[in-house]
Amino acid sequence: MSGAGGGRGRPGPSAGDAAEAAESAATVPVPASASGGPISHAIFRVARLHRMLAGQLLRRVGLHPGQELVMMQLWELGPQRQTDLVRLLDSDAATMTRTVQRLERAGFVRRRPSTTDRRAVIIEPTAASIALRREVEGLWAQLEHLVTAGLTPAQRDEALRSLEAIEAGLSEAAAAPGEGL
After folding, report:
1. Residues 45, 71, 151, CA angle at the centre, nearest 5°?
2. Inter-residue contact 34 to 102 (CB < 8 Å)
3. What's the CA gap between 59 and 1, in Å, rounded?
């Protein structure tokens, strides 16, 4: 990236220098057409890499990205109605159905009818998944280490605060479709 805002030839770092350094560190070139959304493009790149690394780690224990989140809810809260898992994980019913079916085929959950609501299905962790919990927790810690390597504790705290603020803004926008979209 060069040009008027690039900061080259001036003493001391500038905002342009920081943006240029961040862009040069990116693994995916930022096309000019994305110049109106550099943070959105960065989120895309980070999410893609995060999912790829999570997939590599989770594959070791027979899970795919996203399945560990379902298991974490079940380990933490115990058996849940499938509709409650949809709500807890901000998923949709079709995706959750496929995820639960895959987890059931792998032997990590079992489905049973609710004793109080004939329409509801209860999802519960199996003994095999409970034995898997410590491994998933270790893999999740390993993923966190990969995500935060090179960041100081203060940078980690700031990154978390920034991500929480971004999430809150996006949640607000999603809750009010049509406004600002």
Report:
1. 40
2. no
3. 38
| Environment class of 80 (CB within 10 Å of its CB; exposed 0-12, middle 13-18, buried 19+) | buried
Would you say the C-alpha torsion 50, 27, 23, 8 has a positive or negative sign?
positive
Stretch 102-107: mean pLDDT: 96
**Rg, C-alpha atoms of the chain:** 21
Residue type, 72: M
pLDDT of residue 176: 85
d(Cα 178, Cα 26) in Å, to the nearest integer?
32
Angle at 21 (CA atoms; ends 171, 30), nearest 5 degrees: 60
CB count in 10 Å sphere of residue 86: 18
What is the chain's length? 181
Confidence of residue 180 (pLDDT cuts 50, 70, 90): low
Q: Which two tokens stand for residue 73?
A: 């809810």
pLDDT tens column, 135-172: 999 999 999 999 999 999 999 999 999 999 999 999 89
Helix (H) or strand (E) holding 109: strand 109-113
Residues 6+ apart with CB under 8 A from 7: 13, 14, 15, 16, 17, 20
